[in-house]
Amino acid sequence: MKAMMEKARAVRLMIFDVDGVMTDGGLYYNDAGEEMKAFNSLDGHGLRMLQQTGVKLAIITGRKSRLLEHRANNLGIDFVYQGAHDKLATFGELLEAAGVSAAECGYMGDDVIDLPVMRRAAFAVAVPDSPEIVLQNAHYVTGRAGGHGAVREVCELIMQAQGTYDGLIAHYLR
């Protein structure tokens, strides 16, 4: 637990996959063939709180969608990479754009496509229904499922590790 919290304390840029992490992983289509996703509002506020503490936020996803673009804009996500089939190459681009090292990054994923980045990020997180090999490569496995508060859980954990959680929550307890 102490080693995991040390890794979370170092995070200056937290990166998230989308499907299965920020959503429940289900792919929904309407009759027109348009894709729909459901995002958790608690996750959204957790992302905003984490960002308020100075941690930059990023998304790296293999899929492309306009609705993700809208959600990321709504949340003020600092960096968004869609259609990233080689997530490791995209991770390298992101590090350069954000001006941080891998030792200052966290990454949250749910499938084997996320492993190359998870194995390089200082703090690797997986959701509980990830394949076993992904769970084995995570420093932390959330108690909550993707799309059901897992992102919020990680945001709060990072804030607690960095000692910023209590000060932020005090604002809501006045």
N-to-C span = 31 Å
Instruction: Give me the number of helical elements.
Output: 8
What is the average of the pLDDT values?
A: 96
Write down the oligomeric state.
single chain
Shape type: globular
Q: State the low-pLDDT regions, or none.
A: none
β content, as a range? Answer: 15-25%
Strand order of the largest sheet: 5-4-1-6-7-8
Give the SSE order as H and E letters: HEEEHEHEHEHEHEHH
Tell me about the biggest sheet?
6 strands, parallel
* Overall SS class: alpha/beta
Q: What share of the residues lie within helices?
A: 40-55%
Number of strands: 8
What is the alpha-carbon Rg in Å? Answer: 15 Å
Task: Explain this structure.
By secondary structure, this protein is α/β, with parallel strands linked by helices. The protein has helices spanning 2-9, 41-52, 66-75, 87-98, 115-118, 132-136, 150-161, 165-172; strands at 13-16, 28-29, 35-36, 56-60, 79-81, 105-109, 123-126, 140-141. The protein has a six-stranded parallel beta sheet. A two-stranded antiparallel sheet has the order 2-3.
